Amino acid sequence: MINLIKYTPFFWAILLALQPGNVEAQDGRGAFGTAYHNITAHYNAYFYANERIKEVEKQLYENYRWNYNKVLPVFPQFDTTFSAGVKELTEDCIQKASIAIQRHKGSKWEDDSYVLVGKARFYASEFPDAIETYKYVNKKGEDDDARHQALIQLIRTFVEFDEINNAIAVSDFLKKEKLNNRNSFDLYLNRAYLYQVRDDEDQLVRNLVKAEELMPRSHDKARVEFIIGQVYQELGFEAEAYKYYENCLRSNPTYELSFYTKLNMAQVTQLASGSDVKRVRKYFKKLLNDQKNIEYKDKIYYEMANFELKHGNLSLAIDYYKKSVKASVSNDRQKAYSYLQLGIIHYDSLKNFPLAKSYYDSTVSVLPKDEENYNQIVQRQEVLADFVEQISIISKNDSLIAMSSISEDSARTLASSIAKKEIEDEKERRKREKEQARNRARATTSFDREGGDLISANLTGDIWYFYNPTAMSRGASAFARTWGNRPLEDNWRRSIKSGGVVAVNQQQEATPTEEESEEALEAQLQNRIDELLSDIPRSEEDIQKLLAEVEVALYKLGNIYNFKLEEKDNAITTFEQLLSRFKDTEYRPEVLYQLYLLYGQAEKEELASLRAKQLKTDHPETVYAKLVDNPNYREDSKIATEQLRKVYNVAYGLYVNGMFQQTHDLIDSALLIHPDNNFSDNLKLLDVKTMGKMDGLYKYQFELNNFIKNYPTSDLLEYAQTLLKASEDYQINIVNSSKAKFIEYYDQKHYLVVAYPNKAELSQSISTDVDEFLEEIESNYSSGTLILNSEFALVLINDIPTKSLAQKILNQLEQKDLSSKYKGEKIHTFIITQDNFDIFYQTKDLNAYLNFYDRKYQ
């Protein structure tokens, strides 16, 4: 029986404080009013608001998918999807906490209620609002413990909001404050999280150790001790890692955490002899045989593989990684890790790049995109894909070329052999797919267990499972992983549904019989043989096309070996093969330079010198030849480029102001010093425009043609072509009604002209003929092309100083008999003075000048 006498004074004091008429007490003025506000704020508004935060955090921890292959995060991560799922809880928390703030102003729970508002806004992903709330508590709060709690929560909020410097500033400020045990523990955890985000493992583990010392035994303490063990294991302190894994097992961990702790303990067990290794292997097998670990078999095999890899047993490690892949029927992340390890082994250790590529393809196909090294894995996959593509081109094309030289019967036999191998590979692939389908079907029990856990976990809470968006989302994802997207209907679990003949027929249609599959494969075999035979080249042109593809593939493959795979010996072999098979390859200068460097790195000085000598002898004007003598050539070129940029700015200013001769002289002197710089084409094109201003339109077009010819790789090429086209269109459209009147004054410079029909194929051929002619007579004169009109184009040899010399060169050119070479085409060769060329080019009257030429020059 309750002793009323014992509690009478306190009872009457509370009753008096709660009397409606005692306004002064309820306004908070007086001892009774203060007690009333403190008690009501705490056990009504604050209590229920805090319960809502607890429920949010419970859902976060229970629904988070912990990735035990990585160091666990100090706090589970969440995003806006999670925030949307707990929106009702966070809003209710803010509403309840606001009651404590507004109706019980001045109570000792007011600051704590503001902290709860900050937490609710934090979990709602409203980080700026949460930050402002915590800052308000620090500035206006009267309770030091609440202020400290607000600042501690502010650290995590700044981290999530990606304001790391602000988080560090708050952490440093709290070093000067005196905190109670609860706040000290929270501060160490939040500091640990800050350092985890910054990848500072040393400070991460230091703060976790301090937090762990202040924690009672619990699931949370077990997880912290597990993280400490993981970090020590990564840092190589295996004895310390083992100690904290032991602590974790003593702290009542969940079964899942206990399982992964035992796995990790096996990895860090101190091995003094072969018997210790056998003991660990026996321990792994014990875990495999435990029925409670059926769903964890993929992880057990993965750790067994890691253990064997650590002890140099490569083949056994590969076997266990493959078993891990086979056992992963619903855990794509774990399957991706096993595929990745297989890819790394075949890439780094075995140098089997085609097989490594296959494993990287499999990795990327199942690896979740939130993995921190996802982009690097994809990048290596792309490199290997490029590698295998080049290997395939070389192998396929060489095989096809070889098949072109054998008899048709032999070719068919070879094609049949290749096709049968491909069909066998296809059968093996189908077999693997069926086995994977059976494994997925076995995952039913796993789904049932997970779904049951989801439901039972929420029956004890305030929110039923089907009112909990986060739990429902997780359940739907688990269902989809196992069963795929299925319609809402009865008997969805059954592979063959009851329902009579219709259901059976549907199943038969979906899965062809073995006989039908064999027939389909036989037809596929014949089609593939025909396809292979059709690819065999039948003409020299077809063979040359395949060889051109091999040439490019060898060049690309050498670069992949050299720069991406860093396989220097294979790079040398590939480049040497390229030079041997394709002696006139366009890549020769670059490949010779790469071989010069590769042989130098391999300390094969004689071969390096040989390749350098070949490069400088055969390709002296290339950048690569210049790099041999001056390894700093590119840096020197950059300096020269900056100098030319300054010259260009000055020259352009002169050009704009009409000072064309000064512009030309400045550019000419600059190009004399730096003729081959990357920026030289900019100056040259400005010079072309300048000469056009000084010497007229025909000179402008002539120099534009020379620019296009001499700078085929320039970024300004398209612009120069645009200028030339605009100028030619303008000339062609000039309508000159007057008869051409030529000047009979010959004591001046002459041009030698070849006029021919305006056809693209003739332009290239005749221009080449003229260039070869000038080389034959060892002339220093330059040539260029111009469009006269829609009917005729011209090749010009310009600036011949006298009429007699021009006639002599014309006689030499006419001995080449271009008219006979181009039968059926109207080819005219003649000489013309500079003044008359201006008239001729403006009037476009070829017949008029030919009449004048016949009368005055013949």
Q: What class do helices, strands and sheet pairing give?
A: mainly alpha
Mean pLDDT: 80
Low-confidence stretches: 1-29, 443-473, 490-515, 734-738
| Alpha-carbon distance between the two ends | 146 Å
Helix content: over 70%
Indicate the overall shape. Answer: elongated
What summary fits the major beta sheet?
4 strands, antiparallel
Question: Which CATH class of the domain at 750-856?
Answer: Alpha Beta
- The third-level CATH topology of the domain at 750-856 is Alpha-Beta Plaits
- Radius of gyration equals 42 Å
User: Which architecture of the domain at 750-856 would the CATH scheme give at its second level?
Assistant: 2-Layer Sandwich
Name a few traits of the molecule.
single chain, 858 residues, mainly alpha, Serine Threonine Protein Phosphatase 5, Tetratricopeptide repeat, Alpha-Beta Plaits, four-stranded antiparallel sheet, 4 strands, elongated
Notes on the protein architecture:
- It is a single chain.
- The chain is mainly alpha-helical and 858 residues long.
- Helices cover 72% and strands 3% of the residues.
- It contains 40 helices and 4 strands.
- α3 runs antiparallel to α5 (87-102), α8 (144-160) packs parallel to α10 (181-197) and α28 packs parallel to α30.
- The chain is elongated, with a radius of gyration of 42 Å.
- It starts with a helix and ends with a helix.
